[in-house]
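Input record (one chain):
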Amino acid sequence: NFPEHKILLAGIINTDSTLIEKKEFIDEFIEKSINYVKEENIYVTTNGVPEFLPRDIMDKKIKNLIKGENE
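The corresponding structure, as predicted from the sequence alone:
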């Protein structure tokens, strides 16, 4: 099991690709993760710095990330 005092930073938003992760993918990841880590200890984030992605693509990725986290 995941140590209770640790935080999981899950880099599930790919900054090397222009493909936009679907909200359902993010939701599914979180649902699977809470079997191992307390929900309040899961932080979904990017897997790197999005310096080469077009701004509009990164904005869409972040919007889906926020939607997934808040549901």
